[in-house]
């Protein structure tokens, strides 16, 4: 059981847009329920919106408010992330302060991820 967050940071002009895809594994009597949600952190730095939620079971939508709160906390703790990424050149460099794994290729940012258990 647990959640896996994968992130993508895109640059739009002078702004960065941080989006996250969340995969959630939960077990019940019938087996595993897997849900996926996608969030977008908008450039104004104040809003986080639930973009889409995909689940195999209808009641999976009840997971959305909890996932949104988790993502908002991560965003608040990563305000300096965009500045730090500008200096990232090594593949697989680790952003230890916040526990993000930064994946780069030839100095270009590809994605970052964090596993929450």
Structure class: alpha+beta
- Tell me the number of helical segments per DSSP (H or I, 4 or more residues long): 2
Averaged pLDDT: 48
Strand count, sense and barrel status of the largest sheet are:
7 strands, antiparallel
Rounded to an integer in angstroms, the radius of gyration calculated over CA atoms is 15 Å
Please provide the ordered H/E string of secondary-structure elements: EEEEHHEEE
What is the rounded distance between the termini?
Answer: 7 Å
The residue fraction in helices comes out at 10-25%
Write out the strand line-up for the largest beta sheet, numbering strands in chain order.
4-3-2-1-7-6-5
Number of strands: 7
Overall tally of structural domains: 1
Instruction: Classify the beta-strand content into a percent band.
Output: over 45%
State the low-pLDDT regions, or none: 37-63, 79-112
The backbone outline, from C-alpha atoms, is: globular
Organism: Candidatus Ryanbacteria bacterium RIFCSPLOWO2_12_FULL_47_9c
InterPro entries: Acyl_CoA_acyltransferase
Protein name: N-acetyltransferase domain-containing protein
């Amino acid at each position: 059981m647990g959640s896996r967050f994968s992130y993508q940071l895109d640059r739009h002009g002078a702004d960065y847009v941080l989006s996250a895809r969340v995969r959630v594994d939960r077990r019940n009597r019938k087996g595993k329920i897997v849900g996926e949600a996608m969030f977008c952190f908008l450039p104004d730095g104040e809003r986080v919106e639930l973009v889409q939620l995909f689940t195999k079971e209808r009641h999976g939508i009840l997971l959305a408010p909890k996932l949104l709160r988790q993502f908002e906390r991560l965003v608040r703790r990563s305000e300096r992330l965009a500045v730090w990424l500008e200096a990232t050149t090594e593949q697989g460099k680790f952003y230890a302060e916040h526990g993000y794994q930064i994946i780069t290729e030839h100095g270009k940012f590809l994605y970052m991820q964090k596993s929450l258990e």
